[in-house]
Write a structure and sequence with these properties.
Low-confidence stretches: 1-37
Order of helices and strands: HHEHEHHHHHHEHEEE
Number of strands: 6
Mean pLDDT: 88
Strand order of the largest sheet: 2-1-5-4
Largest sheet: 4 strands, antiparallel
Helix content: 25-40%
Length: 265
């Protein structure tokens, strides 16, 4: 493990701790929540359906994400620019053996299993909940609730552990040189090649499809960056963002053109 990595991880944990501490201080009756480890055992080997191959760490470029589709609510925070969408498990092995295509898994998620409760509360402490409020896009319907019910509850991972881990992974990207490059490009048209070069140079990987970019048309009809999808080996997710954690996504889902806008607010 490199000294540079230790320094980056230390800075990120400090930044995340500050975000959660600040969120706790703003709550009416904050609940002290012991921070999870960077990647807990229940994330590396989930208690249920844990025999899947990889995770997708889905991050949002908030100005683009909110400028497409239904948009975000008026109370959408303007910082951070790089937000958290989710941490998605791929198909468990029994589904693959049964011939369930990835597209069905993407659409159904945990609902593919009987007995899921779409109304189950997301059990996180007030500090983590407010950190999620800051980092997750404010859609008309709660994206945090959606992510938990579709991508988490069937795996038996405690919500507090899961979301704290996902927040820290988001921060590792946002605080990296790659995150700084994206923030420096806001308001500019960039090339896909430039973004991928910045990714490879920062994380020292040339793994094909380890990062897939997602673009949509904004309300003015422009191609804008909306999401960044990182594919990670489940059993090596604790190594993120070192090169050994990255994995070639089995399905090509990068839809950005050769040139696109990295929008500003």
């Amino acid at each position: 493990m490199s000294t540079a990595y230790h320094r980056m991880a230390h800075r990120v944990r400090g930044a995340l701790g500050g975000l959660i501490l600040a969120a706790a201080m703003t709550g009416c009756a904050p609940t002290a929540v012991r921070p999870a480890l960077p990647v807990a055992d229940s994330v590396i080997s989930p208690p249920a359906h844990g025999d899947f191959g990889h995770y997708t760490l889905a991050l949002t470029w908030q100005p683009g994400f909110c400028a497409s589709g239904p948009g975000c609510r008026p109370d959408q925070p303007k910082a951070p620019l790089i937000g958290l969408h989710g941490l998605w498990a791929s198909r468990p092995q029994p589904l693959i053996a049964a011939g369930v295509p990835p597209q069905r898994w993407w659409a159904a998620g945990c609902d593919i299993y009987p007995g899921q409760d779409s109304t189950a509360p997301v059990a996180v402490g007030s500090a983590t909940r407010q950190a999620l409020e800051q980092s997750v896009a404010h859609l008309p319907d709660s994206l945090v609730d959606h992510e938990y019910h579709k991508h988490v509850q069937c795996f038996g991972i405690p919500a507090e552990t899961f979301f704290h881990t996902a927040l820290e992974m988001r921060a590792l990207v946002a605080q990296s040189d790659f995150g700084a490059a994206l923030q420096g490009w806001q308001g500019q048209v960039v090339t896909r090649d430039a973004v991928m070069e910045a990714f490879g140079a920062t994380f020292h990987t040339r793994t094909d499809r380890a990062l897939q970019l997602r673009c949509e048309h904004d309300h003015a009809g422009r191609d804008v960056l909306t999401q960044l999808w990182f594919t990670l080996k489940r059993e090596r997710v604790a190594e993120f963002p070192r090169p050994g954690a990255f994995f070639r996504a089995p399905e090509a889902q990068d839809n950005c053109p050769a040139r696109f806008l990295v929008p500003a607010w």
